[in-house]
Amino acid sequence: MRYFLPLIVGCALLGFWEFYVAYAEIPKFVLPPPSAIGAALVDNFAGLIDASLVTLRITGFAFFWAMVSGLGLAVLFTRARAVELAFYPYVVTLQVTPVVAIAPLILIWVGFDNVETAMVIIAWIVAFFPVLTNSVQGLRSIDGQLHDLMTLSRANGWQRLLYLEIPAALPAILTGAKISAGLALIGAVVAEFVAGSGASTGLAWRIIEAGNRLEIATMFAALFLLSVLGIGIFYLLSFVEWLALRRWHESFQD
Amino acid sequence: MATKPAPALKLDNVTIGYDNGYQALRHLSHAFEAGSFTALVGPSGCGKSTLLRAVAGLLPASAGTIENHGKGDIGLVFQEPTLLAWRSVYDNVALPLKFAKLSSAEIQSRVTHALEMVGLAYRASALPRHLSGGMKMRVSLARALAGRPQTLLLDEPFAALDELTRFRLDDDLRHIWQQEKPTIIFVTHSVTEAAYLAQNVLVMNKNGDIAQEIAMPMRQDAQNFRAAPAYHQACAAISEALGHHAAAYL
Questions:
Q1: Shortest CA distance to B187 belongs to which of B37, B4, B6?
Q2: Interface contact flag, B84 A146, Cβ < 8 Å
Q3: What is the ipTM of this complex?
Q4: DSSP bridge partners of B212
Q5: Cα–Cα distance for residue pair A12/B94, rounded to 1 Å
Q6: Among A219, A214, A221, A206, which Cα is nearest to A42's?
Q7: Which pTM was predicted?
Q8: CB contact, 8 Å: B250 with chain A?
Q9: pLDDT (tens digit, 9 = 90+) per residue, B159-188?
């Protein structure tokens, strides 16, 4: 039932779409029928897969750096209150400033011959905040007695981090990672919109290109692949979460 | 021959204050004999836990000195089991030993022995979430014992357990103490538990000081101590002291 019901709804919607476009004689450059989108997907398959890989690469790097910087900063913040007080306003500023507005600056600084690096930076700005806030919250919620236990056992800073803080905060860190991975994809699309060029052609760039040529079916095909990427990333991280927490965490209680 | 044993732990005029000016302990002095079993009772907020944390070195004393003459480490058993949920029973007990850089053979023998003492060797590979509350507390006790502490501090360790489980853990703790002879300071709310376990009961008042010290009778019949008149008299004496010293500050 869990898979069957959504499948029925999806088929019904697609059927209605196909029928209505033909019935109302809507032109193909306004709303193509699903069959035309499928055909566009098959016709441009190689090119669209290449474009998907570009977008996936930008998303992947942005997500990786978001995790490294978000987690690193979170540990610094929770270890030293002064660091948090000093840097938090600037982190928030970076987060609330619309990234589209900063993008041209980043492009100029990184250079037009390094467009992909610029895109990774833009996507990273979008993605890193949830990792930071969730990790800080996770690290802060650790039972004080567990910290006392570490002190009493004479654990050094690294041991405290590795044996207590990271595992205890892992559920929160992974929640942040899930949000961040989704945002990294959104960030990659935004980055392609504002900085993409013929030099680096991801899925979002293919959408703009197809739009300019009024190849609406190809636009939908690229959009479909973006959704597939997003769903894939979400389930991959849910799987990682399941692997890491299922043995001991309450949310996976058997 | 019959000289008094040297104190393992000596508190001299210890005052512990917090940043907001509240003083949890005031000019507290006491010497704990090596290998003695002392229970600490008193009204809530009288500084019992503060005293334990200070002795464990988790809190600095604002004034006065705490001398620890015990050679080994200090073991502390918290109110809650305080186990790492992602590590097995064995790995929880082994962790402090690992930090102390003991050899893996030494760690294994100590962990196994400690788990045997609390009767949990057969659950060594279980995760904490699969244990009952009493079992978790036993693991916590085993972790403290595995460090072979000369001083063992327990902060209301069995307070959250049902009475029958608590009685059994009390017996186990007595037994372990008789075998290993650490100096034990046991904080409890329970008058009966203090009377049952300890040689000495310190009654604290709301002022953060020791108001009275009551020596418990020697046990004639260890098997049936809960039914013995001496036990009931001890309970009555502690209750009366508690009532007297708590009432003075109501």
A1: B37
A2: yes
A3: 0.88
A4: B203
A5: 59
A6: A221
A7: 0.87
A8: no
A9: 888 888 889 899 999 999 999 899 999 999
